[in-house]
Write a structure and sequence with these properties.
Blueprint (H helix, E strand, L loop, with lengths): L2 H11 L4 E6 L5 H16 L3 E6 L17 E2 L4 H10 L2 E5 L11 H6 L3 E6 L10 E4 L6 H11 L8 H14 L10 H12 L4 H9 L4 H13 L1 E3 L4 E6 L1 H6 L22 E8 L4 E8 L5 H8 L3 E2 L3 E6 L3 H12 L6
Parallel strand pairs: 1-2, 1-4, 2-3, 4-5, 5-6, 8-9
Antiparallel strand pairs: 7-8, 9-10, 10-12, 11-12
The chain binds guanosine-5'-monophosphate (5GP) and manganese (II) ion.
Length: 335
């Protein structure tokens, strides 16, 4: 963040504002951790603040301090709209174009508030007056830590803020193992632990919450895995029927896509998940090394993300989607 923007934020926050903070649709650990972490920080500074999520999020994130105060746009629609319309500042966290908020897009496009973006994805669009965008950083939670530091407030990091920010850094770095994890990331995490983040408990709450049906669904996913050694690719499909049979709950498929990458000689892993309600196949892409799944998702599946982790969607049927995907492998170099 440049000095001019930091000064502008300081000026804005020196008077009482009505602030709304928004994560992307289907928020993950980084999206919920960063929005709630920022919420705690801004409340402490005496601001009126709300987090509005475009939709619901998984149970393994529902323990975070004050997560029960998050307004769900789908459930509490008129309250959410009123808050957005009367906001003076809207922070958008962990996404960088307004297409990522689903049904909230139109109301955000029409909002008169000053937009502040904090995000680490590639190719940001230009809706925000103040942009803190850096693709080199591990997570939006690490960026919120930096944001607090820019404002000279690291001494204001409470255990609540520390627990929220630790969670997003942990989930977005694959527990501190992805290439985006730097010594600075570890320094930030160390400071968060010093300020009250309970690392062991957070890990247990996020990762040790399996249910029998989730493990059965994982079994189904792994059985369905197709391994294409010649394309160094492995992909998984899950149809709506398979989800229903295994009592699918939001968040159950989190992490499934990564199994493909644990195979020797596989550098590209994909999962296709049917969502009959939305009439789409939701796709997650992961890679190891230089192959950019961000570009692949952007070019072929209306998506995007990072070099090694991206998402997208298809409006074709599952079999058509997979056929199209396999045809793309023939013209793609994966190494
Ligand atoms: P996931 O596969 O875990 O849902 O997402 C991986 C990464 O890609 C995340 O950083 C997420 O924000 C991004 N992503 C997921 N789906 C989409 C999408 O439909 N469009 C864009 N632009 N990014 C996505
Ligand atoms: Mn993130």
């Amino acid at each position: 963040m440049n000095l001019e923007d930091i000064k502008a934020v300081e000026r804005l926050l020196s008077t009482p504002q009505k602030i709304v903070i928004i994560p992307h649709k289907n928020p993950d650990g980084d999206a919920i951790g960063s929005t709630l972490g920022l919420w705690h920080y801004l409340r402490q500074k005496g601001q009126e603040v709300w987090v509005i999520s475009p939709n619901d999020y998984p149970k393994f994130l529902k323990w975070m301090p004050n997560n029960d105060q998050i307004v769900n746009f789908e459930k509490d629609n008129s309250l959410a709209k009123d808050l957005i319309n009367s906001a003076s500042i809207i922070f958008t966290l962990d996404f960088n174009h307004l297409g990522r908020v689903g049904q909230m897009q139109t109301i955000l496009e029409e909002a008169t508030a000053t937009f502040i973006m904090i995000d680490h994805h590639q190719a940001p669009s230009d809706y925000a007056k103040i942009m803190y965008s850096d693709v080199m950083l591990s997570s939006t939670c690490e960026m919120v830590y930096n944001f607090i530091e820019f404002l000279g407030d690291t001494d204001k990091i409470t255990p609540e803020i520390a627990n929220c920010l630790y969670t997003g850094i942990m989930t977005d770095t694959g527990s501190f193992k992805f290439a985006s994890t730097t010594s600075r990331t570890h320094n930030v995490v160390a400071n968060l632990i010093d300020n009250g983040a309970n690392n062991t408990e957070i890990h247990n709450r996020v990762y040790d919450t399996n249910t029998p049906s989730r493990l059965h669904l994982l079994g189904c996913a792994l059985k369905n895995m197709v391994i294409l050694q010649e394309y160094r690719t492995a992909y998984i499909t899950l149809t709506q029927d398979e989800l229903d049979t295994n009592n699918f709950k939001k968040g159950d498929t989190e992490g499934f896509v990564n199994y493909g990458l644990t195979l020797e000689g596989i550098y590209f892993a994909v999962i296709f998940i049917e969502n009959r309600d939305e009439g789409i196949i939701k796709i997650s892409f992961r890679s190891e090394g230089d192959f950019s799944v961000n570009e692949f998702a952007r070019d072929y599946f209306e998506g995007g993300g990072h070099t090694n982790a991206a998402g997208g969607k298809s409006e074709k049927s599952m079999s058509e989607t997979v056929k199209y995907f396999e045809s793309l492998l023939k013209i793609t170099s994966i190494k």
